[in-house]
Amino acid sequence: MIWDGLRGHDRQRTQFAQAVRRERTAHAYLFVGPEGIGKQRFARLLAQCLFCARIPNEQLDACGECAPCVQMQAGTHPDLIRIARPEGKRELPVDLIIGSSERRGREGLCHELALRPMTADRRIAIIDDAQTMNAASANALLKTLEEPAPGSILILLTPTIDAMLPTIQSRCQPVMFAPLADEDVAALILKQQWVSDEPTARETARLAGGSLLTARQLLQPPLRKLRDHLFKVLKQPALDPFAASAAVLAIIDELGGDSSVQRLHAGWAIRFCVESLRIRLRELSTAAGSDAFATDPFLIDSLAAQLERCLDAEIHLQRSMPIPLCLEGMFDGLSRIRRGLVQA
Ligand SMILES: [Zn+2]
């Protein structure tokens, strides 16, 4: 079964199987769900099932061996059109939707989707990063959404439904995708051979929030170094706020990327602090049982206050506070709480 490689999303598969059996497929779908959970893979598998020459469409499966299946697996099927935001660009350019200004209407996704299928009995288009379409791109797409070519299917992928213009939303059938279960993320990490040991796979999965993309980012050596470093720093009783933030900034620098990527990494630094504090709280409340509360109520309160300070820092970061200021402020706050200068 072609779907065996996909983890989760069984409900969505059942829905599509029903729609195909009843010949009720829509012309346009909006696949909504966090990045890195398999929406794109789902869309491609769906297309492969509809293109497969051996297995009837209503079974919503593919043989993996016929010519269309081989082409789908190689990414060369002539009736599948795929566009996405180009690497390093913030927006999905209108040229990809309706062609360059010299060849407007004679190339691009809308033009290709309206052409007669080459080998299959329909054409399918997938727009990844659809949330990055600007108003011009979205408007260019409206005509295709309103007057779709017979049998054509257009699938737009977006992390949130709100990121799409209402005019697009109302013309597409939404399909909601949930984050993957931790055990599925762990299994996929091992299957992709990103790591070979199960404990690391499980620990990464727990942090990844159901996203394989996040899991992969987390497994980058500098990000792991950042996490290990913060865990070590927060384990020490005394904390030098300037040294702590300087070390984190150096690792963020080493990770590279533009300012938005650096902000993402700073966000991870804060989340690693949250994780470390939560683990300590859990240890205190479980391993030591009620004794911990009896012997050191200050520690529990202090950890809770530190957690709150980290969550504040996360909000500051989202509100575009400069990264160094945000981290210095957070470590200074943590240090003060630890020294009892701030009431926990
Ligand atoms: Zn096939």
Describe the structure in your own words.
The protein is elongated, with a radius of gyration of 25 Å. The protein has 344 residues and is an alpha/beta fold. Strands 2-3-4-1-5 form a 5-stranded parallel sheet. It folds into 2 domains: 175 residues, Rossmann fold, CATH 3.40.50; 119 residues, no CATH class. Helix 15 packs antiparallel against helix 16. 55% of the residues lie in helices and 7% in strands. The model has no long low-confidence stretch (mean pLDDT 91). Bound molecules: zinc ion. Zinc ion (ZN) binds next to helix 3.
CATH class bucket of the largest domain: Alpha Beta
- Oligomeric status of the shown chains? single chain
**On the 0-100 scale, what is the average pLDDT?**
91
Shape: elongated
CATH architectural name of the largest domain: 3-Layer(aba) Sandwich
**How would you name the CATH homologous superfamily of the largest domain?**
P-loop containing nucleotide triphosphate hydrolases
Bound molecules: zinc ion
Overall number of domains:
2
Total helical elements: 16
- Please state how the strands of the largest beta sheet are arranged side by side: 2-3-4-1-5
Strand content: 5-15%
Q: Which class best fits the helix and strand makeup?
A: alpha/beta
H-E string: HEHHEHHEHEHEHHHHHHHHH
Reported for the largest beta sheet, the result is: 5 strands, parallel
